[in-house]
Amino acid sequence: MLMTKYRLFADDPLIPARQVSLPLGLSLPTGSIDERNEDHPVAARQDELQPYGMPLGSGTYDPVVGILYQGSRSPLWWGANL
User: Fold this and answer.
1) What does the pLDDT read at residue 54?
2) Among 8, 39, 66, 80, fewest CB within 10 Å belongs to which?
3) Backbone phi, then psi, for 9, in 5-degree steps?
4) What is the predicted pLDDT for the residue at 7?
5) Parallel, antiparallel or unpaired: strands 68-73 and 2-10
6) What is the span of the domain harbouring residue 38?
7) Contact of 28 with 3, CB cutoff 8 Å
8) Of the ranges 7-21, 22-36, 53-67, which is most confident?
9) What is the domain count for the chain?
């Protein structure tokens, strides 16, 4: 996954106590989407593909977009992501 973050607002450019950012990214098609179930205890099922949700990768390029709020009051930091 490749990610970057663009700051939309900060109350202080060097040490912000409040800031709003826009994270942007791209999920790359890594991993395999055709792994076999070789370790299954039932020999007849060892040649089947992994169940839905179990493949190591997605096989697709996917955009990642969000909005992020971060705040701080020394020594604490907090935030919320959407």
Assistant:
1) 64
2) 39
3) -150, 140
4) 96
5) unpaired
6) 2-81
7) no
8) 7-21
9) 1
